[in-house]
Amino acid sequence: MKKLYTLSILLTITLSTNAQNYLGISNSNYSELNSLYLNPANLADSRHKFQFNLFSFNAVLSNNYAGLKSKQLWDYVHYPKDKDFEDLVYYLDDGKKKNVDAMAEVRLPSFMFSISPNHGISVNSRVRGFGQISGVNSEFLSLAKRGFNKVDMDLYNNIINNRGLAANGHAFAEIGLSYGAVLYNKKTHFLKGGLTAKYLTGGGVAQARNDNFSLDFDYNPATKEVTLLTTKVDMALGYTDFDQYKDNFTYK
User: How far is residue 215's CA from residue 159's CA, in Å, rounded to a whole number?
Assistant: First the structure.
C-alpha cells in the first residue's frame, strides 16, 4: 500500500511549467535549433555558421491536486538529512474534480546553417506525445493520499462514484524546413522574419470515457484489511494508429 501511495504522489506531483518548452535555451542567441520552434526568425543573423543537434528530451507533468512547497523544497535539497519528502507536498482537497496533463518531446537529429549573415535555413525533426486524465474524483485521491488503512472509519463501506472520468493520449512525429531572414536593418531599427513548413505523421490515439464507475471500499476490522470492489462499470474505449480504426468497445 505504501508503494501505491508513493507512486500516486509521483504521478500527480505539480511541476512549474511554461507555455513554451526549453525556455531560457529557446531565448538564447546561441541556440538557433531550439529557438526556431519558438520563432523561426531566429535563424537570421545567426551567431553560428552551422549547428547540429543529435537529440534532446523534454517532459512536463502537471495537475491541480498536488504540489510542492517551494521554500521547503529548497531546504530539502540543501539540507536533506532528517527530512521527509512527503512533508514537501501539499494537496488541494476542495471536493472538485481533478485533472492530470502530461507531455513528452524528443527532438531528433536536426541541423541549421547560415546562407549569409542575413539568411539561415534549418531541417528539423521531433516526436511528441500528449496525454490527459480529467474528472478524477477528489474523494478517491484523498483516500489514496492518506492510505486506505489510515482513514476515518466512517468512510469505509461506502460507494464512491466517479462519473465523467476521461483519459486520452496521442503521439505524432514531424519533420520541418525552416527559413529566417533579416527584413530591415537600419542600426537602431531591426526587423527579421521566418517561416516553417512541416510534414506531420500520426503515431496513434487512445481514449477512454467513463460514464459510471463505482468503487466500494470494504474494511474488515478483525483482519484490518481493505477490499476494493468495483460495483459498476460503464466505460467506452477506443484507439487507432491512423492507418485504420482499430477498435471501439464498451464495458458495462
Answer: 6
**Entry field: residues in the chain:** 252
Residues of the chain with pLDDT under 50: 1-19, 249-251
Q: What is the mean pLDDT of the chain?
A: 78
What pLDDT shows up at residue 145? 74
pLDDT digits (tens, 9 = 90+) for 188-208: 889 999 999 999 988 888 888
Maximum CA extent, the chain? 84
pLDDT of res. 106: 94
**140-146, long-range: CB < 8 A, 24+ apart:** 140/215, 141/8, 141/12, 141/65, 141/91, 141/98, 142/91, 142/93, 143/217, 144/4, 144/5, 144/8, 145/5, 145/8, 145/9, 145/66, 145/91
Query: pTM (2 decimals)?
Result: 0.70
Q: What is the pLDDT of residue 24?
A: 73
All cell numbers assigned to 243? 492507418
Q: Which residues does 216 contact at the CB level (< 8 Å), separation at least 6?
A: 157, 158, 159, 160, 228, 229, 230, 231
Phi/psi-derived region of residue 154, left when phi > 0, alpha when psi is between -120 and 50, beta in every other case: alpha
Query: Which residues lie closer than 8 Å to 49 by C-beta, 6 or more apart?
Result: 113, 114
Bridge partners of 172? 128, 202
Q: Which of 228, 198, 239, 153 is nearest to 37 (CA)?
A: 198
